[in-house]
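Hi everyone, sorry if this is the wrong subforum. Our group has a chain we'd like a structural model of before ordering constructs, and none of us has done structure prediction before. Sequence below.
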Amino acid sequence: MSAYRRLSPFLRPHAWRMVISIICNVLAALLDGFSIALLIPFLNILFHQPAIGMTKGWVAKLLDATVGSRIVPGQEMDSLRNVILLVLAAVVAKNILVWISGQLGATLQEYVTRDLRNAVYRHLANLPLGYFTQMKAGQILSRVINDTSETRLILTQLVTQAMQSGSLVVVYLLILFNISWKLTLLSLTILPLLSIFLSPMLKRLRKSAARRGNQHGEMTSVLQETISGIRIVKSFRTEQHEEERFAEGSERYARSTVKVTRLTLLAPPITEVIGTVIAVLVLWIGAREVLTNGAMTGATLLAFLTLVLRCLQPLKQLSQMPSTAQSSMASADRLFEILDSPAEYQRDTGSRDNAVFEKQIEFDHVSFTYGDAPVLADVNLIARKGEVIALVGPSGAGKSTLVDLIPRFYEPTGGTILLDGVDTREIKLPALRALTGIVSQETVLFNDSVRNNIAYGTPGRYTDGEVESAARAANAHDFILELPDGYDTMLGERGTRLSGGQRQRLAIARALLSDPPILILDEATSALDTESERLVQEAVDRLLEGRTVFVIAHRLSTITHADQILFLDRGEIVERGTHQGLLAKRGAYYRLYNMQFGNGANAPDNQEAMISSAS
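Answer:
Right subforum, don't worry. Here is the predicted structure as tokens:
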């Protein structure tokens, strides 16, 4: 019930649809019960018995009020015709109401699913970066797409179907009790029997459904990894390996689904067998009431049995709903794992809505631990406005983590980061991140036009002229004009229609357009051909002008101009200084530089001479 209470806000905006659907279901159930009760006068007329055949009870009064005046003694065929017409009218009216209810129920399901899916995505987009490093992309996709669809059943299908089936059962029981309370009580013994047989199965079903959801996420994860890394898969000729990985995940998911289905399919036969046994007992005892005691007519018994048999179908549907609910509950639990994860704005302790950068950024004894693993230890750094700070060192040294602390993608576990003397934790995230631009080594472009990718997330904010100026500064304008539709060309998913250098220049144009005072640059010229590297490097040089820049450097030749070079190793700054100063120390930076440009003792000096002559 706690899951239902937490999901009920998604149902509330569409409550009017559910209310009308419930009213239609109740009226349809009443008409259905009434049409079956009309069997009593029909059969009594057919067998030359008193038309109503019942001397007391509200059912007898209802029949007498609705059909009594239409039954003419001595005119059996006319009377039968009148009863049949009334049955047809009741059935037609009932089905119109069922259709209205079905339309409202289908609309209700889709809108609730939409709202739930949007809410999960909205929360997901606001989760901290650390969440996405822990959770596989396939698991996230499975929860947003698959689990929202499964969860809707507990809110919509269960509500509408439960009301439809429940209304029928209630109406049938009211009529049955009026006809014979003894036989009705005997019929109701099906309910405790069903509870005894089905309860253990339902507990196992919820656990199995949760396991199936996780297996679906793993399978989706393999698929997503293969699609995103298809070039690597083909270049390493690992198609068969990936096929085996997917087949293994698919097999586990299939087994989980079979187990859930096996448990789910137990409910209908158990219900039907128990229901049939009860119906046979009712038939036997009812026959004695007619033939031995004369307590009811044969027509009344037949109507009673018809109602009991008609009651089996909605009871069967109601018996299936707990198993469906358990599967939906398992999906809801997986969604709540996302919704219960604190979003960044929930963790944000900042109180300052505005932030400016006029002087410097200072790291004051900053440490960061990821889980139990220390990533940064006692980092002290001052980056003044307009300076270029280069970060070098081996992989895993903490370079990316250090720059990720500036826009508070992660929070330092020790020390403080000060922006013009203000702790960045006092600044609200939107204000802080408005000061920061990022150009990463792995360029991210979206399936949108070139113009919208450059002016990403700011529709209408920049003019076409401003977008074009940014593209020119990034050396992107010429190749954009050569595209089929120029700035209106759709780039396709991840911008795969462009070369690496073209994608990188669009990313630089995006940063130039937003004009952030603080720039984080993950080596933009990495893995490019010579011509692309030259064009990108020119764009980078324009991008650096007048900004405070943190450069994660892989090619040391690109950072010789940096105001400060920090060599990180195992989360600590082991060396710092200018390019020439660090070469003179002949320490870790010297060895790394020597490794890139030659093994001779004077290799760095020779390289410096070559760079100077080239410039």
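For your construct planning: DSSP finds 25 helices and ten strands in the chain. The domain at 2-341 is CATH 1.20.1560.10 (ABC transporter transmembrane region fold).
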